[in-house]
Amino acid sequence: MRREILVDVAEDEVRIGLVEEGHLVELFIERIEEKSLVGNIYQGTVVNVLKGLRSCFLDLGLEKNAFLPLGELPPNKRDIKKGDRLLVQIVKEPIGEKGAKATVKISLPGRYLVFMPNVQHIGISKRIQDDKERVRLRAIIKEIIPQGAGFVVRTEASGHHRKDLIRECRYLLNLWRIIEKRRETIGEGHLVHKAFGLIFYVVRELFTEEVDSLIINSKMEYKQVRSYVKMTDPHLLRKLNLHKRKSPLFDMHNLEKQLSKMKDQKIFLPCGGSIIIEQAEALTAIDVNTGRFAGGKSLEETAFLTNCQAAEEIMRQVRLRNIGGLIIIDFIEMKQKKNREKVMDVLRQQTLRDKAKIDLLPITKLGLVEMSRQRRRESILDTLCQPCPYCAGSGLVFSEKTMFIKIKKEILRTAAQTESKSLNVFMNPRIAPLFDEKKVEQISKMTGKRIKIRPDYKLHVEESEISP
User: What is the pTM of this model?
Assistant: First the structure.
């Protein structure tokens, strides 16, 4: 399977797409004016200590003071007071009137390791289950871990050569030394270290040997990524490419068309069936339909073939839209247990491509599957879209017949309150045809006034205006 990472850098935003066999399967977007604070390290000053709430607030030089739970501090350092200085890292964005949440447990993530300068600990990812491999990895880290510091060995480290881990370990230790030196030279309430942006996050998390190429359309970002990869994974340099053509990168790979369909609730399958995705606050419901597909030799086979295609497309859409939380899938009912199990096998196989943690419950006789997916970041639709200002996000507006009745009542109400002999009624052109000559004549007789229907494209289907 051919896998590519495409990095589209523009003036207002950065878009990164993970493409498998021409299909967009993951999308990352970073708006320039909305860059995340999470991961940034600041030199903060305590401005308020709330012992009752076991917390304190820090001036980090941001718009709002940051919140720090006192439980984050070592027991011998919890007696802090106003004016004390602390080195902290942002772990949660400011929301509304609340400031950012901070921690003193600083961590510097790499591809294979996470360095924790203030925590004496060596942790191995639970996903690495081979005991011999866990012992090997722990032994490597013990060789170079500084006194009083710690490392967490990530799942990606499993099976990798010692030199790869040592190289990244040295890189993270050097980065920490740079942070410490900068801390000594800056004042209070200042940014000490800015977390690497979206491009470096994707390079760190997704740019592996399994990826055939990483293409960037910006020379500056290309040079920065090349410098980073040269330090961390030099064997991947051959896969790094600069997009030099005038044609937009996403257009050349047919991604803009795929992006335009991301907010569609209904997605058609190659077989002619479809899936319908409905996202709500509490859960996401996904319904599978056969549609016009009748290619099976029986209803059972038709349902089975449609469900198999749906299982693949569902997991692609879940990754692409970054749908998290509870997900309920309503597959087409299948009588045979072996067919239900085969569909579950397809679903499980597709989840292996997803880095988010997924829990799958067995399929029921009626074809229902319950799954939960880790929320790793904001849903892509939350980034790209906003609730419809007319339907308030419900996806519904009043029907044309309903609007005819509402406008007719408004005409009668207005006519009773005005002495004017005629009324101009402005409405959306989709509603105007319902007020045909016969109906307008009836309303004129009821009101004793001359009624003029005025179609107006500026008015929404639920809007109307009446004037003398």
Answer: 0.78
